[in-house]
Amino acid sequence: MLKFGVEIPFVTHLGFELHRMDSGASELRYHPQPEHLNSFDVTHGGATMALLDVTLATAARSVSPDMGVVTIEMKTSFMQPARGPLVARGRLIHRTSSIAFAEGTVFDAEGRACSHATGTFKYVRRQPVDQDPSHGLQPVSTD
Fold first, then answer.
1. Positive or negative CA dihedral for 86, 90, 62, 69?
2. Strand partners, 105
3. What is the pTM of this model?
4. For 15-34, how does the pLDDT look when each residue is reduced to its tens digit (9 = 90+)?
């Protein structure tokens, strides 16, 4: 298993595992716990959206791992219930010096597509948290 490059407490809490982050592509694996399920006993949509958000962001960061990214917008489509262990694959579609466009899909244990997302991300420079009131993030200049 790879490391994300920074500690992300929410990702650690959910148990997302990074298996690929290179050349504009990412792969994460997720074993939803009982507390991550909805009343239909399938992975809650919010947990699935978090998985997609991290997958897309990781694909965006894969070409500039020293940079952080923040989500500007994300659209998610749910195609069928997400049951059991999940695999999410993302890819960077296009980037500028400050913006990334990515997409990703969550697959169930049988390889069926459960949900898909597209998103837009802003590249940000990381600063030491104790020196910056914005908690370590600085926007990338669009010049």
1. negative
2. 89, 116
3. 0.89
4. 999 999 999 999 999 999 99
